Amino acid sequence: MTGSTIIGIALILLYHVYLISEVQNGKNLFNKKHLRISSFKTRKSNEDIYQLLFTMCPNTKYSIEFLDKEKGHILLSESITLLHGGFFYPITISPAQDNTTEVTIGVKSKILWSGFLVFKSHRNLYNLIKLGLE
């Protein structure tokens, strides 16, 4: 093996360790700026929103990676496919001032590049959750 091959493999392994640490400590994703953030308000309670997410995830391509009900944080992820490298979706559920609940959905690609698919995947999840709460 050449030196550049060893360095390349080491960088790939280091990046995978970084991704694993992000999933292990999901709260880190709630403090970072994401590529895209969308939010909406609903009259549903926090428990109704959690119930929708818990019933939705086993039936779709999303999985729950992290949950903190006290802070209103839930981290969904989408697996890597041939078309994209997968995404993390940090969701924050917080009370709004007009007796509604605000749901904020962010997106972060699991790999460095993501292209236009990150916007499409984010919009699909946003619409799925919003329509489920109506």
Quickly list its features.
28% strand, 134 residues, alpha+beta, 3 helices
Can you walk me through this structure?
- The chain has a 5-stranded antiparallel sheet with strand order 1-5-4-3-2, covered by helices on one side.
- The radius of gyration is 17 Å and the shape is elongated.
- The model has no long low-confidence stretch (mean pLDDT 80).
- The chain has a single domain, classed as Alpha-D-Glucose-1,6-Bisphosphate, Chain A, domain 4, CATH 3.30.530.50.
- Helix content is 37%, strand content 28%.
- With 134 residues, it is of the alpha+beta class.
- The protein has 3 helices and 5 strands, in the order H-E-H-E-E-E-E-H.
- The longest helix has 22 residues, at 3-24.
- The protein starts with a helix and ends with a helix.
The span between the termini is 58 Å
Oligomer: single chain
| Main β-sheet description | 5 strands, antiparallel
Proportion of residues in helical segments: 25-40%
Question: Could you say what the CATH topology is called?
Answer: Alpha-D-Glucose-1,6-Bisphosphate, Chain A, domain 4
Summarize this, please?
This protein has 134 residues and is α+β, with helices and mostly antiparallel strands.
Write the SSE topology:
Layout: H1 3-24, E1 36-42, H2 46-56, E2 62-68, E3 73-78, E4 87-95, E5 101-109, H3 117-133
Antiparallel strand pairs: 1-5, 2-3, 3-4, 4-5
